Amino acid sequence: MKRWMVMVSVVMALVIGFVFSVPMVQAAEEAKKEGVSTPPSEKQEPTPTAEKKEATPGEVKLISMKGKVEIGGEAILFKMEDGKEFKLEGTGLKDFAGKQVQVAGELDEATKTIKVKEIKPSE
Q1: Pick from 72, 123, 109, 64: which is nearest to 93 by CA?
Q2: What are the structural domain ranges in the chain?
Q3: I need a surface site. Which of 7, 82, 93, 114 has the fewest CB within 10 A?
Q4: Which DSSP category does 83 fall into?
Q5: Which of 104, 111, 54 is nearest to 86 (CA)?
Q6: CB distance 67 to 77 below 8 Å
Q7: pLDDT digit of tens for each residue in the chain (123 aa)?
């Protein structure tokens, strides 16, 4: 009788352990798909794969582009020939309103904002 109870206890412990581990594994896989980081204690060694570099929100790129400066309400806009539009931030930008310019600066793609470092009339 004691052996039987020990066997039942062992089987129950294994079943309970399995039941609680499955949701944790599923949650970890879903977090991995969504890009959520796991605590250091649960991290596994990365497998060698081709590395992808994607733009993250708030990532800044150095750019130099030609387009037209326009005033849009309180914002100063930069419109390109292909229809792309960006908000400009900087000083002295109103002087270029309605003109074709060459802009150099930092582009934040998440907010579609260019922090102007240099602006000059386009040729």
Answers
A1: 72
A2: 2-40, 60-121
A3: 82
A4: S
A5: 111
A6: no
A7: 778 777 888 777 776 666 565 566 666 666 666 655 545 554 444 444 433 344 455 678 899 999 999 998 889 999 998 999 999 999 999 999 999 999 999 999 899 999 999 999 987
Torsion of CA 32, 38, 44, 48, to 10 degrees: 50
Residues 6+ apart with CB under 8 A from 68: 78, 79, 98, 99, 100, 101
Record the tokens describing residue 33, joined without a space.
């798909």
pTM of model > 0.70: no
Tokens of 77: 């806009």
Name residue, tokens 């609680």. Answer: 20
Closest of 112, 106, 109 to residue 72, by C-alpha: 112
Please say whether the dihedral angle defined by the alpha carbons of residues 87, 90, 95 and 96, taken in this order, is positive or negative. negative
Whether domain 60-121 has CATH 2.40.50.140: yes
